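Quick question, first post here. What does this chain look like in 3D?
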Amino acid sequence: MSEQKLYPQDKILAKTILKLIPKSITPNQITVLRFLLIPVVIWSIIQEKNIFGIFIFLFTASTDAIDGAMARTRNQITDWGKIYDPVADKLLIGSTAFLLISKYLSFYLALVIISLEILLVLNGGWRKANGHIVQANIWGKMKMILQVIGVSTIFLFLIIKTSVLLSLSWIVLTIAIILGTISLFTYSI
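> Answer (accepted):
Ran it through. Tokens below.
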């Protein structure tokens, strides 16, 4: 397996959090954990357990950075991870978009976010069918970070009831849509 490009967050995580994770745990196991936590995030939203919700959402979202850093720093990148890690991210963002963004911001904003996520999955599937495995590029990584910030801001609104947080969330999620669109057209093969 060839040497992978390390991002700044990989180096930071390798010196901190990854030291706490045994080498016997693989990045794919962390991705599976994210799949298992998504229903807990959904439950917290439906039950309006917003303080718990923001923490479980942020923890679940953080597993994306953790499994990616593990894969790159421990040279454990797999084709399974390249495919299912982004699927887990899209399920997390898609479900929160459906439940939170459509309710507190706009159904149409949620629809655009979900549609973009579906297009990204279809694009990856199409490229895989043509013999290519596509990894997220910097635009996709920045999109995910902004989506997490946007959703977290909605949770904060639900906790402290300051309406400016909804405006901030709208702006952040709109920028995320722009970055997601760029990532759709700039994947390298």
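The CA atoms of residues 150 and 169 lie 4 Å apart.
The radius of gyration is 16 Å.
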